[in-house]
Amino acid sequence: MSSSSFVTAALFLSLMVGGLNAQLSATFYSSTCSNVSSIIRGVVEQAAQSNVRITASLLRLHFHDCFVNGCDASLLLDNSDGIASEKDAPPNANTVVGYEVVDDIKTAVENVCPGIVSCADILAIAAEISVTLAGGRSWNVLLGRRDSRTANQDGTSALPSPFETLSEITKKFTDVGLDTTDLVALSGAHTFGRAQCRFFSGRLYNFDGAGNPDPTLNTTYLETLRQICPEGGNENTLTDLDLTTRNDFDKNYYTNLQNNHGLLQSDQELFSTSGAATIDIVNRFAASQSDFFDSFAQSMINMGNISPLTGTNGEIRTNCRRIN
After folding, report:
1. Residues whose CB falls within 8 Å of the CB of residue 75, separated by 6 or more in sequence, listed in order
2. Measured between alpha carbons, how far is 23 from 29 in angstroms, rounded to an integer?
3. Among 2, 115, 257, 273, which one is least packed by beta carbons within 10 Å?
């Protein structure tokens, strides 16, 4: 089966399985804002000229939105009366970025199609465009989500943590209806972007509580990371999630795991957890970039189907940072 046929078939399967998401459609804006994707692409391309990291950041925004109350743009809400912003929760504070670019996208879209396109759909489209700009494959983004009128700061505990074991992360994916293949495929988003030292420095010096590093870290890579993140140093220092092709969306994330070059504990556990079902999937994606791209496309569709607000639920925000 060709790659395009696979993604088309996967899209059809997603629509058949996700009955409650049947109102989402790749052609949702065809008669009301047909050029929405090109508008968003223009803004993202411009932002990427001055900030190469923005593509990874926009993909992460969609992920962090969908895992908390579904794909409803609740992440984008600022603090206000009755709303405690998810932006200030530990998984997001000072690490999730790109909000200003979303503001620019919303302004551009509103100028052409006022009151039509939701912030939740903007995140979904921007994520797909970001992947393609970094070298990944396009997919049909299902649209028709509406925006929440509230946030769930406490609910951010549903987000996978870089410090968690494979079993803990697997449960978080299962809780939102995603399976093991989705887990491994979506983790591949760490093929580009950066991470702060505080999210992995525990692996470098005192992983076991007895002063030893994480034994699953390649020793040469360990010394490289210790140079970047010295003990007692600046925990906000950034380093590449993928040490080989730092800004490219490709399969190298998985070959890194095979070589014990996974930066985060949650990454390396996909390959280094004895007997885990994830190992074969890592090996499959490491062997075939096409296989990874196909699976990633389907998993993004699956993630985008997590509890969307549709019909008359929610609203179409005019400003993504606040309710109407």
Report:
1. 61, 64, 65, 68, 86, 87, 92, 96, 151
2. 12
3. 2
What residue numbers does the annotated binding site for Ca(2+) cover? 65, 68, 70, 72, 74, 86, 191, 242, 245, 250
286-295: pLDDT as tens digits: 999 999 999 9
Q: Cα-flanking dihedrals φ and ψ of residue 209, to 5°?
A: 80, 0
Q: Which of 62, 64, 251, 317 is catalytic?
A: 64
**Cα distance between residue 127 and residue 121, in whole Å:** 10
Q: Quick check: is 62 catalytic?
A: no
DSSP 192-253: S-EEEGGGTTHHHH-TTSSS---TTS-HHHHHHHHHHS-TTS-TT-EEESSSSSTT--STHH
Please write the tens of the pLDDT for every residue from 39-53.
999 999 999 999 999
Judge whether 185 and 292 are in contact, CB under 8 Å. yes
Feature table: binding site for heme b: 190
What tokens does 293 get?
């791209």
Domains and CATH numbers, the chain: 35-159 (1.10.520.10), 166-303 (1.10.420.10)
Q: Identity (one letter) of the amino acid at 302? A: N
| CA–CA distance, 293 with 136 (Å, rounded to integer) | 7
Q: What is the pTM of this model?
A: 0.92
